[in-house]
Design brief:
By secondary structure, the protein is an alpha+beta fold. The chain is 30% helix and 25% strand. This is serine-type D-Ala-D-Ala carboxypeptidase.
Length: 348
Amino acid sequence: MDYESGTVIYQKDADSALEPASMAKLMTLAVVFNEIRAGRVSLDDEFFVSEHAWRTGGASSGGSTMFADLNSQIRVEDLIRSVIIQSGNDAAIILAEGIAGSEGTFAVMMNELAQQIGLEGSYFTNPTGLPDPDMYSSARDLAALGRYLIEQFPEYYHYFSEPEMEWNGINQANRNSLVEMGIGVDGLKTGHTEAAGYGSVTSTDQGDRRLIAVVHGLTSMRERTEEARKLLTWGARAFERFTPYAEGQVVAHANVYGGASATVPLVGDGEIALYLPRGSRQCLSATINYSAPIMPPVTQGDRIAELRVYCNDQLVQSAPLYAGETVTQGDLVRRATDALKQLALGWL
C-alpha cells in the first residue's frame, strides 16, 4: 500500500480472514494512543502488574514477554515500548487492564475503534493476539491500521524503530529484523503462532515515498524477513506517481434534490494521487458512489461521495469526495420540478 494515497499496488487474498497473532497489538496501540490523546492516560502513568497479566503473558507462559514483576507498577511509556519492541504479551495485558479493567472490556474498545477506522474485516477479542478462534483480521485491514497509526500518531512512531529494549536486566532486540537492515524500514509489527505462521506489517520510508507491506502465513522468521524485503523493494522501484485530479479540481457532479442548484461539484481533500505500475495508466477506470437523493442544504466541505479507482477491474484505491460549494434549498418551482422528475424517472 502506498501510504500517501492509500493505493494498493499489489494484493493477494487481501480480504481473506487471517489470525493476526501479535500484529493485533497494533490495534491495542491504537486504543492506547487515542486514550493518551484524549487526556485519560499519560505516558507517566503507572499500571499495576496483576497475577493474570503475569501468568498469561509473563515468562512462564512461553510467549513473548517483558518479564514484568508480579505486583509491580510500570510506566505506560515503558509498556508501550515493550509492546512494540519486545512484543510483550504481559505489557499488552497490563495496558488493557490499566485502561479498561479487563481484557474483555478493552477488546470492546478495540472493536469500536476498528469500526471508526473502517476495518470491515476484523474482530478483536484480546490485546495480545494470543490464539482465539473468534479473533480475525485481514491483510487489507492490517495495512490500513498501520497507515492510521503513522498518520494519526507521528509523535509516537519513533518507538517502532528502536533497535532494542532492556527490562528487568534482560535485553531484547526489536523483533522486526528489517529495522536493522538499512533499507529504510522503521516499523511496524511482527506476529507468529503455530497455526498462523509468521507474518508482519512493515513500513519503509523511501525518501519522498512511504510504503506499507503485509505478509502472512510464512514458514520461518527468515522467510518473513525476505518476503517483506522483496515486496517493499519491488514496490519502491516498479511504480510511478500519477495525479489524475489536482487540488481543487472538480472530479464529478452529484445531483441535489430540490436545491438552488441542480448539482454540487465534488472535489478531493487536496490532490488525488495514485501509484501505478510504470506504463499502465491505460488500465484505469473509476466510479463515483453516493447515496441519492442528496437533500439541501449542502455545505462546502461536506463529505458527499466516494471515488473508486480500478485497474483492470480490480479496486486499487478509494478516496472521499467533498462538496466543492454550498447549495441552499431551491425555490418552490425547483422543488416541484425535482419531485416530478423523481416520480417519473426515479432518482438517477
